[in-house]
Amino acid sequence: MNAPATPPKLYIGLMSGTSADGIDAALVDFGGAQPKLIASHSHPLPIGSQDLVSQLALTSYDELAIICELDIHLAQAFADASLALLEKAGHQASDIYAIGSHGQTIRHQPPAPGKTAFSLQIGDPNTIAECTGITVAADFRRRDIAAGGHGAPLAPAFHNAVFRSQGHNRAIVNIGGMANVSYLGKGSEPVLGFDTGPGNVLMDAWISRHQNQAYDRDGAWAKSGKVSKDLLTRLMQHPFLSQAAPKSTGREAFNLPWLEQQLADLTLAEQDVQASLLEFTAQSLALQLRPLAQAMEVYICGGGAHNQALMQRLGELLAPMPVLSSAKLGIDPDWVEAMTFAWLAKQCIEGDKANLPSVSGAKGLRILGGIFQA
Predict the structure, then answer these.
(1) Mean pLDDT of 174-189
(2) Does 62 have pLDDT greater than 80?
(3) Using H for helix, E for strand and C for coil, what is the string for the chain?
């Protein structure tokens, strides 16, 4: 007789990253031995939201009323993304255990001498629960920060749960607006994870300003330019790159005003700046990946996995280590982050700890997130 089928255990994960270029929604079944992506959906943010998110990341621009209004507008968009995903997948709200919502980060200040650590994500989970009729788990970063950690990156715990190999050292590199790495050593080594610096954020901002494009498809514009050694040297001197882990960063450190400071006395073609920014992302990643292990497999997820020029350059810098898409491990690179927040919702609902002190620097394991009942 065939064994009875394991009943599905469905969660939705919602993610809007540093780029603020849309909402990724993933429907994930945790009923089996490994999480299974059932359906996915990309949903636009409300018109004008991306500019507001970028402005709010800068300390010179603070407006409480805008934050409060954007909190609700983004929550309604997160709810709409969830409902559109369910319609696409042919499921009802009653089929879903919970939604895990990352929200939209508008300010992240990691632990530092003389500073109070905090991280603020908006996209009101009360509104999401009300609009969808589904219980929501959200606010995943602040408990780790309360325990002395950075509250970031959150993905290494999920990466460890689904990507770890007993026979190979692996690095899972997410290249979104920012870039972060999860090092999964073979055997029982502790997980290491940290932000490495900018992923796509500077390249996206530069091409948006000068080409009115959301991103540099395949890195084509960058490939048309030449790397400026002077600019690259200045970019690589950013103190974050030499900081020891645990560490996390965001738009607060890497943004157009900072880039303009580095360009102040340089005269460069626009495409040469773009080429230099791609090289900066590749070199800052390689600089911090190489010391992790002499031999490892490197898997890329996030939007950077589709930038052919960036993938090629990373392959050159990290040779002979293979640099591959996370699709080779069975998960589409576009949906790893959204699946992470479905997993975090599951951990929260089931009362299981989900942070990694070896990554965040927290005093111990903690259950992350708050629960907002349907």
Answers:
(1) 94
(2) no
(3) CCCCCCCCCEEEEEEECCCCCCEEEEEEECCCCCCEEEEEEEECCCCCHHHHHHHHCCCCCCCHHHHHHHHHHHHHHHHHHHHHHHHHHCCCHHHEEEEEEEEEEEEEECCECCECCEEEEECCHHHHHHHHCCCEEECCCHHHHHCCCCCCCCHHHHHHHHHCCCCCCEEEEEECCEEEEEEECCCCCCCEEEEEEECCHHHHHHHHHHHCCCCCHHHHHHHCCCCCHHHHHHHHCCHHHHCCCCCCCCCCCCCHHHHHHHCCCCCCCHHHHHHHHHHHHHHHHHHHHHHHCCCCEEEEECHHHHCHHHHHHHHHHHCCCCEEEHHHHCCCCCCHHHHHHHHHHHHHHCCCCCCCHHHHCCCCCCCCCEEECC
Locate 237 and state its tokens: 């001197």
10-36 tens-digit pLDDT: 999 999 977 778 899 999 999 999 999
Question: What is this structure's pTM?
Answer: 0.91
Q: Which of 37-46, 300-309, 319-328 has the lowest mean pLDDT?
A: 37-46
What are the structural domains of the chain? 10-151+334-372 (3.30.420.40), 155-329 (3.30.420.40)
Backbone angles phi, psi at 355, to 5 degrees: -95, 165
Q: What is the pLDDT of residue 4?
A: 60
**Inter-residue contact 27 to 37 (CB < 8 Å):** yes
Token representation of residue 96: 């879903």
Tokens read off for 174: 């997410």
Contact 77, 23 (CB under 8 A): yes
Is the confidence at residue 188, as pLDDT, over 90? no
Please report how the helices 270-289 and 201-211 are oriented relative to each other, as an axis angle in degrees rounded to 10: 170
Contact between 299 and 325 under an 8 Å Cβ cutoff? The reply is yes
Q: Cβ distance 197 to 284 under 8 Å? A: yes
| Whole-angstrom distance, CA of residue 103 vs CA of residue 71 | 9
Work out the mean pLDDT of the chain and round it to a whole number. 94
